[in-house]
């Protein structure tokens, strides 16, 4: 029995829902009522002591951290493959997943969380401007990596794109205009049926 504790607006949980669709894996979705603070209550903290979504439960095995969940699904359900077969390809996937988290996801959260959920007077505009700069710098680097390629690693859609999809969705909200190669890559990612099926409500 597989169960994903998630929130429909969560970017990190969306990664897992995308991978489940790509691999055609059934999963019960349990929405955590974050507006009511359910993620910080003892019942949920017993599952995930950090009080965050997503959390995956599978026959008593509990896992949090979206990238670890993606790697677990890949290891237990290798087909269709979302990582290359060779060690170097896998290492590149690991590297880009990590860079997505530390150079894009965190900074995007600093901008989109206040914009989506807080009144303007509670925004930390200085931190948001700094985050935007860091995103722009990161996308300049990604531009070089993606130039001349369809997908980031090898010649196939991979966990790298699974990780990036929920965050590039919000480039308009972070008011970053991506360089042309990143823009085209973003379009390819967002056109994927698994991305279309998981677009968050406005
Ligand atoms: N590194 C975590 C990040 C998860 C995360 O920050 N989730 C957000 C929702 S998108 C959350 O639960 N925030 C609540 C909190 O941090 O208290 C992952 O990759 O799963």
Kindly describe this structure.
This protein is α+β, with helices and mostly antiparallel strands. It is built from nine helices and four strands, in the order E-H-E-H-E-E-H-H-H-H-H-H-H. The protein folds into two domains: 2-76, Glutaredoxin; 87-196, Up-down Bundle (Glutathione S-transferase Yfyf (Class Pi), Chain A, domain 2). The chain has helices at residues 11-22, 42-45, 66-76, 87-117, 125-146, 159-168, 171-174, 180-191, 193-196, and strands at 2-6, 28-31, 55-58, 61-64. A four-stranded mixed beta sheet has the order 2-1-3-4, covered by helices on one side. The longest helix is centred in the middle third of the chain and has 31 residues, at 87-117. The model has no long low-confidence stretch (mean pLDDT 97). Residues 10-12, 39, 51-54, 65-67 line the site of glutathione.
